[in-house]
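Work Package 3 (structural annotation) set out to generate three-dimensional models for the target panel prioritized at the project kickoff. During this period the team completed the workflow that converts sequence records into discrete structure tokens, so that structures can be stored uniformly alongside our sequence database. As a representative example, we reproduce one entry of 249 residues exactly as it appears in the project archive.
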Amino acid sequence: MATVNDLKVPALIPQPLKHITTLVTGASRGIGRAIAIKFATLGASVAICGRDEAALDSVVTELEKLGVPSFSQTADVTSARDVAGLVSNAENALGPISVLVNNAGIGLFGPAHEKTEEDWDRVLNTNLKSVFLVSRSVAPSMIARGAGDIINISSLAGKNAFAGGGIYCASKWGLQGLSACMAEDLRQYGIRVSTICPGSVATEFGGSRPKDATKVLLPEDVAHAVTMIVMQGPQSFVSEIQLRPVRKP
């Protein structure tokens, strides 16, 4: 039996998601890592992807200590070919994907007129195109089974403008629109598409850690919101969560 000493989940702890498989993109660190671990503590089988193989291996080690089936693959989620291989390999390893968390994202800030076409493509491809590609790849299986959750990690920057946020805000405002339309397209098949819009989170996203850690969210706060969406009743649909720290930064 699993024990607390070796960090495995004791059999007596409820595992309400034991029979589902989830895929989390951008899961090698930060919010994605926290989401993957949260799902594992609730018993789910967890597939993860990212570009840093060593970091992914570290997360897989944590998942294995929690005693759940896991799978990892380095992948470029802006590439349709990589995405198709990722989804196929994950489902072959763990079974049909019940929950997709589109978490992969980058931040690049500064006045839009000072940025390059390469900057634009990098941010929009990572933050928006990847969601289109991965969601498109998992949707047919979800449609066939008549159920599924697609959860897109957006940002309050998808709701509010700020100086220096031109390209990043464009990607997140676009993600809000894509998610809302996907939700309307897929709800008839029993598939829920939701967005989570966090404020500042204590990660290395954007190149530096926040100055005051008491006035930001933790990655685990976002992970809790993700699993809350998945664990709601089957007849209900939380389309969006806006998540803020209690104290203003």
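Residues 158 and 173 are 4 Å apart (CA to CA).
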